[in-house]
Amino acid sequence: MDSPEEINLFSGWPNPALLPINALAEACATVMASPAVRVPALRYGPDIGYQPLREHLAQWLTSFYQPRDPISAERICITGGASQNLACILQVFTDPAYTRNVWMIAPTYFLACRIMDDAGFAGHLRAIPHNESGLDFAFFRQELAKAEEKARAEQNFEPKYKPTRPWAKIYKHIIYATPTFSNPTTLTITLSDRERLVQLAREFDALIVTDDVYDLLQWSPDPEKPLTQPDKARVPRVVDVDRYLDGGPKDEWGNVVSNGSFSKLIGPGVRTGWAESTEKVAYGLSQTGSSRSGGTPSQFSAAIIDQLFPTGLIQSHVDQFLRPKYAERYYRLMSAIQEHLLPLGVTLASASPEIVGGYFIWIYLPPPLRASDLATVALQEYKVKVSDGNLFRVQGDPDTSRNDFDRNIRLCFAWEHEDRLAEGVRRLACAIRNGLE
Q: Does this UniProt record's set of keywords contain Cell inner membrane (predicted)?
């Protein structure tokens, strides 16, 4: 008998069947058919990005997030995607000697650690614990104060490697988070915690970088009670909190940059995203050396994506296709978890009773099971690939007690065909049962 085909609940990628292939083909044809669009699209673009897309994004984001005032295009810089832009943020706004630490809300997106390391912060990544009770602010404030005491003792008062540049500010700290439907836990940081985070960032001169890549993918946790107004955000972004809290930012730079991407909505291969912050930060990002050399990193893709806005195709794709499809996948995976895993003692991270979303489900294994062992057995013996919770540790953080996820497994419902999700969970249950016997 042939061995069963592997089921992949590991990869956080959108299934190709969920991408708007026809709409993208039409948009590409429109760009290539019009010299007025095609010629600038194929040239080096402006550093800050394709202007029509900046304007359409400003309108679209205003409609979804509904801040007190409309978002202006001047607050937006077009990027090569969230990962590329995270690297650019570190290039422009940090100095590996002067910037004390990169604080990552833990568990964290594991590949972000590599980006931080490449920017010179290996050994300076620290975890901020986050669970169903919220962020551990007592610990975080204490550690920020210790970092400042250490900097004073070392007379670390100014950047060492980055020269003074009018378009850039070097921050003392970086805080990295996925505030809404986080990867991996799917937890959402509360409004009160977002406000406290901004207050601490202002006090300690930190730049908060938020990956806001899952925000639009939201639905009701109960399939029998559809979400009202799924096209409106429930919690203000951290960048919007900074825009208004206590009268707004302390200076023209502010303390938050929102990192957006079309990867989860249109396809990772378009390599296009956006950053939103104050006008100073948006412009500063556009002055990264690689952008000054070649212009915006995604000029042609940006021109194609821009064609989806005037026709309403991007909004209809999200509203009428993506949200319902992802919700269906979520419900199927949750049903299988309830049937096969909960009776074995597995528990779930407490999701909001009103809204869920994103790509992932974070589970807790019953003792004495260890995620590192279970993930190996599940793949080798049962042909189901899952993410070991240890993968989402903040790499190099010295406080292992606050950074231990060996009882956790992340399951992704975005990549596999929906008909295979339940079978993947059933196989995982077999691996768990085997480990408990």
A: no
